[in-house]
Amino acid sequence: MARTRAADYDDKRKSILKLSARAFAQHGYDKTSMAQIAKICGFSKALLYHYYENKETLLVDIISAHLEDLVDAVETASNDEQTPLERLRSLCRALMTAYEDADSEHKLQINELSFLPNEKKQGIIELERKLVAIFADAVAAVNPQFGDESALIKPVTMSLFGMLNWSYLWFRPGGDLTREGYADLVVELLLNGSRSLDVTAVR
Description:
The protein is an all-alpha fold and 203 residues long. It is built from nine helices and no strands. Helix 4 (55-77) packs antiparallel against helix 5, helix 4 packs across helix 6 and helix 5 (84-99) packs across helix 9 (179-194).
């Protein structure tokens, strides 16, 4: 007979993901054992293995859940009634807000994917592509001079992510900028820079 799930199974699983993400981010995925994770979570090793069979599945779930949250946040922030500029601002604000309290998960997504075999990365890569596609559409919409098939859309979009993604290294609550304020700043920098590009000169 299959083992019955406890009523708090999902809550415990979410707690494992959050605590494991912090441990992996602080000590390194390769240097953190399942035994250490069990201790941090206050579980026995046997109970931890009831939820996750190994570190790989744990890392996959941490990053996948993080990306799913990001995709949900930006999809919720976007609607058909917005102007292209309003949409891009909403997307950037939503992403910065979703990054709050997710520094560990974000760090793992950026730095630790190399520890996963290719077959375990596919779902994560698909989520990343979906997120990039949402922003690429918004970047194209505020830069109609690019054209729908412009080779500039991807590099400009990835430059946008560069400004937003690496903010976890320096952004601190209570500073001169709010998360929404920084998102707006990034949009202005992107627009002022991308609109001045000579599309015909870019190779």
